[in-house]
Design a protein that fits this description.
7-stranded mixed β-sheet; alpha/beta; ATPase_NBD; globular; 2 domains; FGGY_N; Nucleotidyltransferase, domain 5; 17% strand; 543 residues; carbohydrate metabolism; 5-stranded mixed β-sheet
Amino acid sequence: MSIVPSSRTNGGTVTAASPAHDAIVAGRTALGIELGSTRIKACLIDVDDPATVLAIGVHEWENVFADRRWTYPLDAVWSGLQAAYADLVADVERRHGARLETIGAIGVSAMMHGYLAFDAAGELLVPFRTWRNTDTGAAAAELSDLFGVNIPLRWSIAHLRQAVLDGEPHIADLASFTTLAGYVHRELTGRRVLGVGDASGMFPIDPATGDYDRDLVRRYDDLAAGSTPPLRDLLPEALVAGADAGTLTPEGAVLLDPTGVLRPGIPFCPPEGDAGTGMVATNAVAPRTGNVSAGTSIFAMVVLERPLRGVHHELDVVTTPAGDPVAMVHCNNGASELAAWAGLFGRFAEASGSPVSSDAVFDVLFREALDGDADAGGLLAYNHLAGEPIAGLDEGRPLFVRTPDSRLTLANVMRAQLYGVFGTLALGMRVLAEESVALDRMTAHGGLFRTAGVAQRFLAGALDAPVAVGETASEGGAWGIAVLAAFRLSSGTDLGAYLDDRFFAGAPIAVADPDPADVAGFAAYLDRYRAGLAVEAAAVASL
């Protein structure tokens, strides 16, 4: 079980007479585009040889905090998509000597949840509200009570209901709302649809139908009668993996490729969320499998064999791209604070006259953490740049705390920071353990796991479970949606069997079993972490 190797790691240029060149020219390819929190990435694969990544394109971007809300301007969405696609085209030319004019199938993925609201003409009514916003507490609590299931602050329906409760003027003109992936897909194809995995982060899905839960839709319509149109009119159509989700329109082709080279008519798979693409990229779509994705946020997905016994604010139930129920532990804060500390040490190296690359800084600091005490020497790190609902925090204040008798060493500082990335996640995973949810394997991906054997080992200790990492774990999401695009072209109907047979049979992985000392050390750290949340809350209230 592994993520397939990226062509960027292979080096060299494939000759024009190669099978890869012929596949590109003939359009026997699949393109995945993922709008992540810090990067927009395009990944082209060969549908006949799907374990081969043909080319990669990347554009970096960042969210902005405006009017006390996290957002991305829509202009940045399109300039970023065009830049990532142009980078991909250049990589195709450089590696394969081919001109990218057509593609077998395309898929779009993006950060889940959030709120993009449109009027009847398709015009945006208010700035895009991302998953990171935590000002929907009243609505989330009301809906959780009404539905009898946990509705987190970041879910799209919570954003809609909060706007109604707040009497926002735009509600009077509301004709539809969707996620970022749904919006981009609509602009490229003209279809107002969403993959069921992404749709499950907008509104609860009934696993029996693969569609929005009819009873809960009725309850919401009764609650919101007179304030908004019927909910089904507002929501995008939910589609399972492999379904026909439209084709690239002439207008969409120019949006993606302003040079006019890309031809319209290319089939699309249903647009999905980053959680769904992470499950695909780690082959975690079958019951008793799970994955952890670490980036700006960090979340764990565990495919369920049975419904949860109770309702827990730490857990929300979404679905795989095929519609199977998944318990999700989503934390708003991931590796951003860790990256800030790495930047601090990188600047020190530069100021000292010995500059090193960013990757080298992370590698040195991560390996130093291996020499830290198992409990991080009594040090404590909170990575809360934004609010963290699982920890009961509406806003974030990154903190580094120690007592007079703590052991302040570089190794312990870095181990505490790495433990801090997993702290809130571990709180949620403890709840899953109390639910007796069975888990055969957990696979991790994201840039945090690029340095082999460090974050992976600490995560195994935090979860007290084996953690697998593929060869290119930092490149999973865009590849995952490319695989879903390839699945759109296949004749199969079972996504799990398709992944097993075409992508993961015999693929190499590295597995870290939990070290008993790490398990005990992290448990001690987590006890301090839980107790110290009062300090974090005081910082939010005071600073």
